[in-house]
Automatic annotation (TrEMBL):
Family: Belongs to the phycobiliprotein family.
Record keywords, A-Z: Bile pigment, Chromophore, Cobalt, Metal-binding
Designated name of the protein: Cobalamin-binding protein
Source organism (scientific name): Planobispora siamensis
SUPFAM superfamilies: Cobalamin (vitamin B12)-binding domain, Globin-like
Length: 356
């Protein structure tokens, strides 16, 4: 199949595939993918150019409030089954080394990691795919038992970076290099480098290319790179998180009297949002990276606006945290930047509304 015909077939199939997974039509989605495979579309192309883009679109549809959480989860479950169907149809004899593929502890976004595992298998690697949220101690036990050439460690959310750091450090301590991947490490891989990963790749095919090109040079994090942790702001924020959240919710209720009229669901949603703010703030403190926090604030504003909630609601929460954390100068600077980002999102939304 020539490239032009292949691109046309995939473009035509993409909408059908999204529709089928959106209706949790497992058999229809599997049939579509396997028919393309039978027509000569390479398995790796199906994984990376059909399933992966569809999954990104699923996330966008949820964020835009066009799909429910249930529909998003259903679509993801179907795509996971499609990946399994392709993997069972196309099997490559392992001729290279062994790679352990896993999500960091607490990370449950596993589909992209599964795609990487299957791409590596297609390229000739023997792969141990350990799935979502692998505790660090159990991963190290597995490394001792299997003696792999490398670990491919995925982190989707920056809030998991402290655990990812502990895991990759432990892997390196037993002599196994770590290739990091996933948006949690930054779109440019800067946080993977900061934490001392031996390599970073932005996509599954890039990760496979990286491993195939040769070994991973050891590059442990320098003490200077994490010197900011000496102020103990991260440690104290995590340790005092329950009390900080309770105080923030009480202060928010005092500052915003209409909260007294919230029903149970609204109160739970507000508490969840405040917890997310605390967790992303902690992650930004850990890596001393303002973009970790401001990117979260900008994304959250978009999600809230899609649900009819103005950014000012988030700004109120950020101000409450800023007032609560008077002994945390670095956190207060991050919160100030977050407030600016939320105001910018509010301005952008107003401009868009005026143009409609």
């Amino acid at each position: 199949m020539n490239k032009l015909a292949l691109a046309h077939d995939l473009e035509a199939a993409a909408e059908q595939y999204l529709e089928r997974i959106g209706h949790a039509d497992e058999f229809g989605a599997v049939d579509l993918a396997l028919n393309l495979l039978d027509d000569g579309v390479p398995a790796e192309t199906l994984l990376l150019d059909l399933i992966a883009p569809a999954q990104r679109r699923v996330g966008e549809l949820w964020a835009a409030n066009r799909w429910s959480v249930a529909r998003e989860h259903g679509a993801t479950a179907v795509s996971d089954r499609v990946v399994a169907a392709i993997a069972s149809r196309v099997r490559s004899e392992p001729v290279l080394g062994r790679v352990v593929v896993a999500c960091t502890d607490g990370e449950y976004h596993a589909l992209s990691t599964r795609l990487l595992a299957e791409v590596l298998r297609l390229r000739g690697w023997r792969v141990d795919f350990l799935g979502a949220s692998v505790p660090g101690t159990h991963l190290i036990t597995h490394l001792h038992q299997k003696g792999p050439d490398a670990v491919a460690l995925s982190c989707t959310l920056p809030t998991r970076l402290p655990r990812a750091h502990a895991t990759l450090t432990a892997c390196q301590a037993v002599g196994v290099p770590v290739l990091a991947g996933g948006p949690g490490f930054g779109s440019d891989g800067r946080l993977a480098r900061l934490l001392g990963a031996d390599g970073w790749a932005p996509s599954a095919d890039a990760a496979a290319d990286h491993l195939q090109a040769g070994g991973l040079p050891s590059s442990p994090a320098s003490m200077d790179a994490m010197a900011h942790l000496a102020d103990e702001e991260y440690t104290q924020l995590v340790r005092r998180r329950p009390a900080i959240l309770t105080g923030a919710m009480d202060a928010l209720a005092d500052a915003y009297p209409p909260m007294a009229l919230y029903d149970e669901r609204q109160m739970e949603s507000t508490a969840e949002d405040m917890a997310h703010v605390a967790d992303f703030l902690a992650a930004a403190l850990y890596v001393d990276d303002v973009a970790v926090f401001t990117d979260f604030v900008t994304w959250t504003c978009g999600v809230l606006q899609a649900r009819g909630v103005p950014p000012e609601a988030l700004v109120r929460g950020l101000r409450v945290f800023r007032d609560q954390l008077r002994e945390f100068p670095r956190a207060r600077r991050l919160l100030a930047e977050g407030i600016r980002s939320a105001h910018a999102a509010e301005t952008d939304d107003a401009d868009w509304e005026n143009e409609r």
